[in-house]
Design a protein that fits this description.
The structure holds 2 protein chains of 2 kinds.
Chain A: H1 3-16, H2 18-55, E1 60-65, E2 81-82, H3 83-92, E3 96-111, E4 114-124, H4 128-132, E5 136-139, H5 144-148, E6 153-156, H6 158-165, E7 174-177, E8 181-189, E9 194-195, E10 198-199, E11 204-207, H7 208-215, H8 219-224, E12 227-228, E13 230-235, H9 247-262, E14 271-275, H10 276-319, H11 321-329, H12 334-371, H13 379-405, H14 409-414
Parallel strand pairs in A: 4-11, 6-8
Antiparallel strand pairs in A: 1-13, 1-14, 2-12, 3-4, 3-7, 3-13, 5-8, 6-11, 7-8, 9-10
Helix pairs in contact in A: 1-12, 2-10, 2-12, 2-13, 3-9, 10-12, 10-13, 12-13
Chain B: E1 6-19, E2 22-35, E3 39-43, H1 50-57, E4 65-70, E5 73-74, H2 80-90, E6 91-94, H3 106-115, H4 124-137, H5 153-165, E7 171-175, H6 183-198, E8 203-206, H7 210-213, E9 218-223, E10 226-232
Classes of the chains: A alpha+beta, B alpha/beta.
Chain lengths: ~425, ~240
């Protein structure tokens, strides 16, 4: 029999039982849609994370204090990172473009009649705008000189400026921080938006010396003195590209320098150095694990869909025993019968697959709209899901089709 | 008419069913010959083996032993696929319960044998035309798109006769063709079979009804799996 005729017969058979065919396909539809939606969600999440990481600025090395590994008991020299380490790195390491130290404090702000609670005061250094990719919208940023002299000035995030001063130009205005420290506004940053879960626009930026000296108001902080948690090092674009220095060389140089300054060995280092790449790798492995979990869940639902097809096909074979007998009596060979039922199963799963693809694409979009999460339809996932549906159809359709093919024509004709 | 050819040539046909520990010899050395153009009835009480004989002659099963030549070809030892092809090209079936595909138009039912005919030189359109012609021949030219459930029993049996003839078989096997019909429709169906016989179609019919058997040329009586006696009916019913 010509394939087109087999398909036609199978199609007509499915049309005779529309509701049942639809219900049979439901498993496949849900399976395929699940695969597409889940992959769309994980791809969307990945893309968002990727953007956040690049949003942090490129070529970044993070030097963070690791108190657990140091030996604070042996004197002040080995208790994590200190403010001066940043300058040492900036001065002595080749290939470093900028170094930023951040020390934050949460305070209440007052400007005129407006009072804001729990505002993050970010004490930082001169390279901050370039390392963090922040643009000054009006006024200026503070200079190294002002940082060294602990000048009482501030640069505002865009939304903070608006909250405090509305549409007024805040330049030269005075802000009272924590009731005692008075800062003069010298500039406002451009809108940066959210990076990760950090809102850069709602913060107040001031020389790090201000935070270290005037806002560390508890005993512990005073004892810690000029200790910082994190130093950001921005590496030159040439590193890793000009064939002379690699990122690893720079990291090694920084390690050696800090070990020397802290008077510890490399094994006892009281700091940890991570790169942008490390973070990306960690994120990727996390999302990969997430994605493979989703793929398994979706795969299981496809298999359940396939079992549904097998179930219905077995019922269908039993129910249509007489039809099979009639076909055999007029000359259908076992192969003809096998192909007919296999084609039905395949049609069910392919049509189910198509509907599932449509449902998946629409579902992913709706999910994105409803949850605010980003979803990205991955083309390969569409083919993957559709291909799996077809495979499932053949796999689970074969057994019932074979049962049908092996019926004895006399028995089948006698079946009531 | 030229010298007639032997269509059915069965010698010492034996069919044994294994029922647990028992052997049932449904056919116990049956020999039967049918000439081309003959209209033959097979009769016998239930358990006489007439259904088994019909299944063997109709190539729905092979005999345990014995030789069966159909249209000059030995078919006593064929496999499932070969049997299916023989049924497709050489035989037509008329069943007591019509055995039409449910919810399928008469035309599609009649075309079915052509569907499975790999050797058919006919195009789809020609197959369709032929099926329509067959339905017209059995008097259903105005009902080709009716589905079985919209037709009377007699009409359904006509559709099945059209289906039995569409592949130009060397023989039509009829199994109690009037068994499910009232006497009037039954008589009409028999008239139709007699007509076909007159046109030269070879028909072998299984029945338990002597009145129906009387339409045929010859009646073969079976008993306990053997041919008991043969009776020439001597008269042509018209």
């Amino acid at each position: 029999m010509k394939p087109i005729k087999v398909i036609k017969i199978a199609w007509l058979a499915l049309l005779k039982n529309k509701i049942r065919s639809l219900l049979t396909m439901l498993g496949i539809i849900i399976g395929v849609a699940a695969v597409i939606i889940m992959i769309a969600i994980s791809a969307g999440t990945e893309a968002t994370i990727q953007e956040q990481i690049t949003g942090l600025g490129s070529n970044l090395i993070y030097v963070s204090a690791s108190f657990g590994q140091g030996r604070p008991g042996e004197g002040m020299s080995s208790g994590g990172l200190v403010y001066d380490d940043a300058f040492a790195i900036a001065d002595q390491i080749n290939g470093v473009k900028g170094v930023v130290v951040e020390q934050s404090s949460t305070q209440t702000l007052k400007a005129g009649d407006v009072s804001l609670e729990d505002v993050t005061i970010m004490g930082t250094t001169g390279d901050f705008p370039s390392v963090r990719d922040m643009e000054i919208a009006s006024g200026r940023y503070f200079t190294q000189n002002e940082i060294d002299r602990t000048t009482s000035i501030a640069v505002l995030g865009s939304s903070l400026a608006e909250e405090l001063f509305g549409n007024q130009d805040p330049y030269g205005e005075t802000i009272t921080v924590g009731g005692t420290v008075r800062l003069t506004v010298v500039g406002v940053f451009d809108e940066k938006g959210m990076v990760g879960d950090v809102d850069y626009d709602s913060r107040l930026y001031t020389p790090i010396t201000i935070v270290l000296e005037k806002m560390t108001n508890n005993q512990f902080s005073r004892f810690m003195g000029d200790r910082v948690r994190l130093i950001y090092v921005e590496v030159d674009e040439t590193v890793g590209n000009d064939g002379e220095r690699t990122l690893d060389d720079v990291i090694y140089q920084i390690s050696l320098l800090l070990v020397k300054l802290h008077e510890v060995t490399l094994e006892e280092a009281d700091f940890v150095i991570t790169t942008q790449q490390d973070i990306i790798t960690t994120q990727e492995s996390t999302t990969a694990a997430f994605r493979s979990l989703l793929a398994w869940v979706a795969g299981v639902s496809l298999i359940v869909g396939g079992i549904g097809i097998m179930n219905i096909m077995l019922v269908s074979v039993t129910e249509r025993t007489r039809e099979i007998g009639i076909r055999q009596s007029v000359g259908a060979t076992p192969n003809d019968i096998r192909w007919q039922f296999l084609t039905e199963a395949l049609l069910l799963s392919l049509i189910g697959g198509l509907i599932g693809v449509a449902a998946g694409v629409i579902g992913a979009w709706l999910f994105g709209q409803a949850s605010g999460m980003r979803t990205v339809i991955v083309v390969t996932s569409v083919f993957l899901a559709f291909g799996s549906a077809a495979t499932v159809g053949v796999f689970f359709g074969y057994y019932p089709a074979n049962q049908a093919a092996q019926l004895d024509p006399i028995e089948a004709l006698r079946y009531e | 008419m030229k010298k007639s050819k032997v269509i059915i040539d069965g010698k010492d046909l034996v069919k044994v069913y294994q029922m647990g520990d028992f052997e049932v010899r449904a056919l116990d050395g049956t020999s039967i010959q049918v000439q081309e153009g003959e209209f033959v009835a097979i009769m016998g009480p239930s358990g006489s083996g007439k259904t088994t004989l019909m299944n063997v002659l109709g190539c729905l099963m092979i005999p345990t032993s014995g030789k069966y030549k159909l249209d000059g070809e030995d078919v006593s030892d064929l496999d499932k696929v070969e049997l299916a092809q023989i049924r497709n090209q050489k035989l037509g079936f008329i069943f007591q319960s019509y055995n039409l595909l449910a919810r399928t138009p008469a035309l599609q039912n009649v075309i079915l044998p052509l569907f499975y005919d790999r050797t058919s030189p006919l195009t789809d359109e020609e197959q369709q035309e032929k099926a329509v012609k067959m339905l017209e021949a059995v008097g259903l030219g105005d009902r080709i798109y009716h589905e079985p459930q919209e037709l009377s029993g007699g009409q359904q049996q006509r559709v099945s006769i059209a289906r039995a003839l569409v592949n130009d078989p060397v023989m039509v096997m009829a199994d109690e063709p009037t068994g499910n019909l009232d006497s009037k429709s039954g008589a009409e169906i028999m008239e139709l079979l007699v007509d076909l016989h007159k046109q030269g179609v070879t028909i072998v019919m299984v029945t338990h009804d002597p009145e129906i058997a009387a339409y045929t040329d010859r009646t073969i009586h079976l008993l306990d799996g053997k041919v008991d006696r043969e009776v020439k009916n001597g008269k042509e019913h018209s």
